[in-house]
Design a protein that fits this description.
Length: 421
């Protein structure tokens, strides 16, 4: 079986791996034999994830990979696409009571990966706890067939689609970049994650009172923290809000990467605005820029890029797509991603926590993931160094507005390298 390569892969290189890791903290020590069996069963359900990338003349293609998907003890993030992973673009690792799932973000996003994780957890837990009756309504079982839309290997249409946008991308040419955050892989050993939890009812009380959302509220708080810590910096602060355009593509179950970046621009005049007003403004930008018609503009950019790179050499394709990705994603002061409510279909009793970490080389220096678990919002702030000043001010602003949060000790994280064929 052969699959088409998403044109985003051509942006990959030694300085841009763009991989991410999901950490699942289980309530019990991991059983390696049960995990190995669960991975093999899950791969049977998701054959389009069991692939390797090969070079064919001046392009890449994905082909079926018969090698077992790696399941590595010790929790280390092994390089993807190379010899150590058997060519696989996904890998599973474990240590103690932690399970890690690593993958290329050019290959898929969280929306494409999460069904795989749910099937994996089900296959793992049903082996250890056969007496349990899990809710199977939202779980793809190993012997079920992938849907046509789900397994489609071409993420974009052949030709640009008609669109009638209701608001344009007005990202400024120059934005405030956090110069105290080291660039790229120079500070990789210092990449740090700060995890905290906030009661859902407390955050929603504040966010919904001004027709905001958890994402726009968290963006407003981080903007205010950055603005207060850099009072003399006059350039606009830009939050890159991650947003999926599966709905606009009419491919709700596609496994491909379909992440769009909505820029929320905070100008100098907004420094004195209240959190309530900033929250309302951010939510408004998300509504307008996240409209299907505007998403189609981004989709058409990918379609045109596909046409542009067809006649290029492999080296030219890499340079063109690196510039495309850096222009669209890398021009932000910080990023925010709101996963939305995640249902584990009754498996929550065996999962004490989960969180994503990602390659920070594309970020503006700070990346925030928000995801609800049980009765709390988990807020995961990642940085390219261990400096606590942004997090300290962020937490302080929450508490000043009556929102208490439970914080964890910061820890360093790693993500997988990516090896091109």
């Amino acid at each position: 079986m052969e699959y088409k390569v998403n044109n985003l892969f051509y942006a990959a290189g030694k300085d841009l791996h763009n991989t991410f890791r999901v950490r699942l903290e289980m309530t019990e020590p991991v059983d390696p034999d049960a995990l190995r069996r669960a991975v093999d069963l899950t791969v049977r359900r998701y054959p389009y994830f069991s692939v390797k990338m090969i070079r064919r003349n001046e392009e890449y293609v994905l082909v079926s990979n018969d090698a077992p998907m790696p399941v590595t003890p010790g929790g280390r993030a092994i390089p993807l696409g190379g010899e150590e992973s058997g060519g696989h673009l996904m890998a599973v690792a474990w240590t103690g009571n932690l399970i890690y799932v690593d993958t290329s973000h050019f290959f898929m996003d969280g929306g494409g990966q999460f069904p795989f994780i749910k099937t994996l957890l089900y296959c793992y837990l049903v082996t250890l706890h056969p007496e349990e009756e899990f809710d199977l309504s939202g779980i793809a079982l190993p012997d079920s067939e992938p849907g046509v839309d789900e397994a489609d290997d071409d993420p974009f249409p052949e030709e640009p689609v008609p669109t009638d946008e209701i608001g344009l991308d007005r990202r400024p040419e120059e934005v405030l970049m956090l110069q105290d955050q080291p660039e790229g892989y120079t500070g990789r050993d210092g990449w740090t994650s700060f995890r905290m939890k906030v009661e859902q009812k407390e955050m929603m009380r504040f966010a919904s009172s001004v027709d905001g959302s958890p994402a726009s509220f968290i963006a407003s708080v981080m903007y205010r923290a950055i603005a207060e810590l850099h009072p003399d910096r006059k350039l606009p602060v830009v939050c890159g809000m991650q947003h999926q355009y599966r709905r606009a593509l009419r491919k709700p179950y596609s496994h491909n990467c379909h992440v769009n970046i909505i820029p929320i621009v905070y100008t100098e005049k907004m420094r004195s605005r209240s959190l309530e007003l900033l929250n309302t403004m951010g939510r408004g930008v998300m509504i307008v820029r996240g409209d299907d018609a505007n998403d189609l503009l981004s989709i058409n950019e990918h379609v045109m890029n596909e046409k542009k790179i067809r006649g290029l050499t492999l080296e030219e394709k890499h340079e063109h797509m690196k510039e495309f990705v850096r222009k669209g994603i890398g021009k932000n002061t910080f990023e925010v991603s709101y996963v939305g409510r995640v249902s584990f279909n009754g498996m929550e009793k065996y999962i004490s926590n989960f969180s994503p970490t990602l390659d920070m080389s594309l970020s503006g220096g700070i990346s925030i993931e928000i995801f609800p678990v049980a009765d709390a919002f988990c807020i995961h702030i990642m940085q390219r160094n261990a400096d606590t000043k942004y997090v300290d001010r962020f937490v302080g602003l929450l508490r000043e507005n009556g929102i208490q949060c439970e914080t964890e000790a910061p820890d360093h994280f790693e993500i997988s390298d990516f090896v091109l064929p």
